[in-house]
Model the fold of this input.
Amino acid sequence: MMKSTEDAMVAEYLKADGTRCPFCLESDLDGEGVEIEGGFAFQRIHCGGCNGSWEDKYRLIDMVNIHAPEDETVAHVPAE
Done:
């Protein structure tokens, strides 16, 4: 696939928030387990409409629903 065509496909996929297949535009998408590496996560996606597949890449942007452990022996490590 030509780079400019691939770039346009990625742009449209991201614009649709990853809800439609970039090949056939179907919304019949299934994701496999998520792998985490550093501040990124990766998930293999498969389209049931055309059998296309690709990998979504996520970036850590925030932390929510934070619950500290009840064990008071856990020390807080400040960020550098």
Notes: The chain has a mean pLDDT of 90. The CA atoms of residues 13 and 22 lie 6 Å apart.
